[in-house]
Amino acid sequence: MQQFNFDTLTALLNQQIQLKDGSNNVVQLNVDKVSLPRFATEEYEAFSVDLSSAAEVHCPGGNYLFSHPSFGEVQLFMSPYAADKYQIVVSRKKN
Questions:
Q1: What does the H/E/C string look like for 14-54?
Q2: What is the distance between the terminal CA atoms of the chain, rounded to a whole angstrom?
Q3: N or C terminus of the chain with fewer C-beta within 10 Å?
Q4: Contact partners, residue 16, CB within 8 Å, separation at least 6
Q5: Taking every annotated instance into account, which residue ranges of this chain make up the domain DUF6916 (predicted)?
Q6: Alpha-carbon Rg of the chain, whole angstroms?
Q7: What pLDDT is stored for residue 43 in this prediction?
């Protein structure tokens, strides 16, 4: 999960990452935006990733396996905020 970070995701803007659900269905999602929080702390790494899918695809909120050669595979929770728009929020204590 350490490779799934702000810098890596920012480099993937307007590129696609792969999502796999528990039934091994695979969907390509576009990385639309990567944002830092308004108030950062020294203790935590925090950022959000906005994603989009093709109009005919809809993924409900839940845990999914995301993959891309730049960060490998990581399981994360993703929430929809429109029919084809999603967000992942990461907040983790720095080492």
A1: CCEEEEECCCCCEEEEEEEEEECCCCCCCCEEEEEEEEECC
A2: 13
A3: C
A4: 28, 29, 30, 31
A5: 5-89
A6: 13
A7: 86
pTM of the model: 0.91
Reply yes or no on whether the pLDDT at 84 is more than 80.
yes
Q: In the chain, where are the structural domains located?
A: 6-93
At 88, the amino acid letter reads I
Q: What SS3 class is residue 9?
A: helix
Distance from C-alpha of 61 to C-alpha of 86, rounded to nearest angstrom = 8
Rounded Cα distance between 56 and 77, Å, is: 21
Give the pLDDT confidence of 27-48 residue by residue, as tens digits.
999 999 999 988 878 888 899 9
